[in-house]
Write the structure tokens for this entry.
Amino acid sequence: MERISHALVTGGAGFIGSHLVDELVAGGCRVTVLDNLSTGHRHNIDHLGDRIDFVEGDIRDEGLLNKVVKGCEVVFHQAAVVSVSQSVQDPSHACEINDLGTVRVLDASRRNGVRRVVMASSSAVYGDDPRMPKTEDMAPMPLSPYAVQKLTGEFYASVFGGLYGLETVCLRYFNVFGPRQDPSSPYSGVISIFLKKASAGEAPTIYGDGGQSRDFIYVKDVVRANVLAATEAPAAGQVLNVGTGTSIRIRDLWELIGELSNVKIDPVFGPPRAGDIRESISDIGRIRQSLGFKPRVVLRQGLIDTLAWYRAPS
Ligand code: NAD
Ligand code: UD1
């Protein structure tokens, strides 16, 4: 990895953020983590000891942000209210963190001479445009407050580039999975919930008919995309899909997890979730061309590794 001298990772105690921190530290980067531990955990980064600076705090705290961002070359902005359905339940709270928090991160970055901000955006911005696969030039059609907030973040990033010369890259992650994804809340990612249910021999709930599809990408691939986005010159100013270009229906995902875990349990079907998108599959031509990025881990292997981790966390 091309050397990044010092990085701030907001949300660095979370699922994706903590894997990113691991990779940055391994590459010799000095890392500061800012996290309020609302959904993240100290145990995700405890193994790094004093090789990182951990600051417990909120991205809405301007004074704190100005302090922690000082001297950073790159900011990886991962902190957010992550759940689509949580944003439907409480849009104001999600807006405060996902919109106001993001503006504060961008503002502190430009005031303190940060070279580049890499932002965690989402494929949720595409909504239900029936055209597949999703390409970055499609008009966004957000269906949830979360999707609106991620799209607003992208617009702010672009405006901060134009007004203040701050380099920004927005990565539209598709559905990310892997070790450390916390299955403990009903708002957690579907793979973490399904793996926990399968391990416990319990039936999962599938919302709707299970015919909705998602493009699942392994967390380590998402980390590589982040590092490329921070270090490759052509990334500046871009919005890029981070997916695999393949997808699976939710009911088939449960079947596959059942097969890998050696359980055969019929799911329970519940009402569809408000704000849920139906189909999701990425076109990754743009990120392949501009950053040379290609995912390396296929769904089946990623599930095998994640299942092993849930059984014996390391
Ligand atoms: P996560 O919940 O594990 O990580 C989010 C982290 O942000 C947590 O550690 C949490 O404590 C922290 N946080 C939340 N609010 C904060 C605040 N106000 N101040 C400081 N820290 C705060 O979730 P994740 O899956 O690792 O998501 C990381 C990013 O990726 C998010 O921006 C999310 O929207 C985006 N994303 C995730 C997925 C996915 O499938 N997991 C897909 C697309 C985009
Ligand atoms: C996820 C991410 C979101 C990200 C988006 C990108 C989480 C919690 N959400 O949203 O941050 O921006 O991908 O595409 O990581 N489902 C069930 N049963 C369950 C849980 C979920 O049937 O117990 C279904 C949902 O209704 C949905 C699908 O599985 O259709 C995926 O749900 P979820 O993992 O919450 O992800 P997204 O809403 O796609």
Observations:
- The chain has a mean pLDDT of 97.
- The domain at 6-177+219-244+282-296 is CATH 3.40.50.720 (Rossmann fold).
- The first strand starts at residue 6 and ends at 10.
